[in-house]
Design goal:
The chain contains five helices and six strands. The protein starts with a strand and ends with a helix. The protein is globular, with a radius of gyration of 16 Å. By secondary structure, the chain is an alpha+beta fold. About 35% of the residues lie in helices and about 25% in strands. The protein has a four-stranded antiparallel β-sheet with strand order 1-2-5-6. The chain has one domain: first zn-finger domain of poly(adp-ribose) polymerase-1, CATH 3.30.1740. The chain binds zinc ion.
Length: about 120
């Protein structure tokens, strides 16, 4: 991976990006903010962002959803989607996640209309 200039002048250097078949320790997923439990698969990235080291752990499904969303909306570098920090009123990504990536929507606790009515019955 080389050095790439981001739109806002920031520089991201990815030093490591790898799929882990089964993590040894639990990690918090940066996309959905739920735990990746020991033994579950994950994707690990490590690099330098504007001079600061970063490392992120994400679920493979969350990563795939974010990558697809970024591709669809041309969101890269500092615009890259991190679902747990995104506001639906601005991005309107909830409906898209519910339809395309229901597993991720569930982790983010995005309420679907069907689920809301079920919850009301309980
Ligand atoms: Zn996740």
């Amino acid at each position: 991976m080389g050095r790439r200039e981001a739109g806002g002048g920031g520089t991201v250097t990815t030093l490591s990006s790898k799929a882990i078949k089964a993590v040894r320790k639990p990690h918090c997923c940066e996309q959905c903010n739920t735990m990746i439990q020991a033994g579950e698969p994950a994707h690990y990235d490590f690099g330098i962002w504007d001079g600061y080291a970063f490392s992120t752990w994400v679920h493979p499904e969350c990563r795939a959803a974010a990558h697809e969303y970024a591709t669809l909306n041309d969101l890269w570098f500092e615009d890259y989607p991190w679902f747990q920090h995104m506001d639906d009123s601005e991005h309107e990504h909830h409906g898209w996640l519910l339809e395309k990536h229901p597993v991720v929507a569930q982790r983010l606790r995005i309420p679907s209309k069907a689920k809301q009515s079920k919850a009301a019955e309980l």
